């Protein structure tokens, strides 16, 4: 079991375990803040005054460095469907702060006691409440999970665990939904706080849709569901692809140029009255060499609307 060293004093160390319990061990060169593995076999507190003294010492530690460690966010996690929820998670992966970022989320979280619970349990409980309130009744629902931490590796790992928790929850309830999860940077978290929106949703708006958020448009996106944002992204990419295809060269243009070249060569040959092949420059008349821009007409190339227009 993982535990964090709260304080070392008089040859003993107080450690807060990830199940919320505190144990007292002999000091083994511990340093406050160290994360260590604690075996099941731990020092048992003796009855009487020694037990009371130990409890008093631990209480003292918890009101100092221990409390600071427990109450310090190690991760920021956002969950978006249409309700948007932002959570602060400590070193033990327990939720120590939660904020509803739109009206739907405020209604959703009413009556739920989620603080100090494990983040995976919290995510599962929120998904269950979303299902109860009909957010997954229509096909094509999207669930977005974003995680931020000082270590991108840890953020990715937590995002993966939360994705697994969501998959288990929706499978148990027969829900069909698209799940997206991943790590984001701290800068995105700070920007999201400024705009009172989740970092996951802000990431879609700025990096996928290419929209620069400002005072004039933020309200247009705050209450938009992830499903609608992704639909807008798909439509935008499709239109961009079609536009690129039009600009690169319409189908048939290269063919027209090729036919014109053939006709011109034929006219020259017929009108000259020279023996066959006379006056015919080397390579002239080869269809593939006549006014054929690079890439045009090649399968999957710029001029292929079917390939370029895919989002």
Describe the model.
The protein contains 11 helices and 9 strands. A 5-stranded mixed beta sheet has the order 7-6-5-8-9, with helices on both faces. The radius of gyration is 32 Å and the shape is elongated. It is of the alpha+beta class and 311 residues long. It has 3 domains: 69 residues, no CATH class; 150 residues, no CATH class; 56 residues, no CATH class. Helix 6 packs across helix 7 and helix 7 packs parallel to helix 9. The C terminus is likely disordered.
Give a brief outline of the structure.
With 311 residues, this protein is an alpha+beta fold. It has eleven helices and nine strands. The relative contact order is 0.08.
Topology:
Elements: E1 2-9, E2 12-17, E3 22-26, E4 35-37, H1 49-62, H2 65-70, E5 75-80, E6 84-89, E7 95-100, H3 103-109, H4 119-132, E8 141-149, H5 152-172, E9 177-183, H6 186-195, H7 199-208, H8 218-222, H9 226-248, H10 253-272, H11 305-308
Parallel strand pairs: 8-9
Antiparallel strand pairs: 1-2, 1-4, 2-3, 5-6, 5-8, 6-7
Helix pairs in contact: 4-5, 6-7, 7-9
């Amino acid at each position: 079991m993982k535990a964090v060293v709260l304080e070392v004093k008089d040859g003993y160390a107080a450690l807060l375990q990830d199940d919320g319990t505190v144990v007292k061990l002999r000091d083994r060169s511990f340093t406050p803040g160290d994360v260590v593995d604690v075996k099941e076999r731990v020092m048992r507190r003796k009855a009487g005054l020694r037990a009371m003294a130990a409890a008093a010492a631990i209480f003292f530690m918890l009101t100092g460095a221990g409390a600071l460690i427990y109450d310090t966010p190690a991760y920021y996690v956002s969950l978006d469907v249409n309700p948007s929820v932002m959570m602060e998670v400590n070193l033990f992966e327990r939720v120590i702060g939660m904020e509803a970022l739109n009206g739907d989320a405020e209604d959703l979280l009413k009556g739920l006691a989620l603080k100090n619970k494990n983040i995976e349990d919290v995510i599962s409980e929120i998904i269950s409440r979303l299902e109860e309130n009909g957010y997954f009744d229509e096909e094509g629902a999207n669930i977005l999970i974003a995680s931020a931490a000082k270590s991108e590796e840890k953020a990715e790992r937590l995002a993966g665990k939360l994705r697994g928790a969501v998959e288990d929850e929706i499978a148990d309830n027969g829900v069909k939904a698209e799940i997206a999860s991943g790590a984001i940077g701290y800068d995105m978290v700070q920007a999201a706080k400024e705009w009172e929106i989740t970092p996951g949703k802000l990431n879609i708006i700025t990096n996928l849709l290419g929209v620069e958020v400002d005072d004039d448009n933020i309200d247009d996106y705050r209450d938009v569901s992830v499903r609608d944002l992704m639909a807008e992204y798909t439509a935008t990419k499709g239109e961009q692809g079609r536009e690129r295809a039009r600009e690169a060269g319409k189908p048939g243009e290269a063919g027209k140029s090729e036919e014109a070249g053939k006709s011109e060569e034929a006219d020259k040959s017929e009108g000259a009255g020279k023996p066959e092949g006379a006056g015919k420059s080397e390579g002239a008349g080869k269809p593939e060499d006549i006014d054929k821009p690079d890439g045009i007409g090649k399968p999957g190339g710029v001029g292929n609307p079917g390939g370029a227009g895919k989002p």
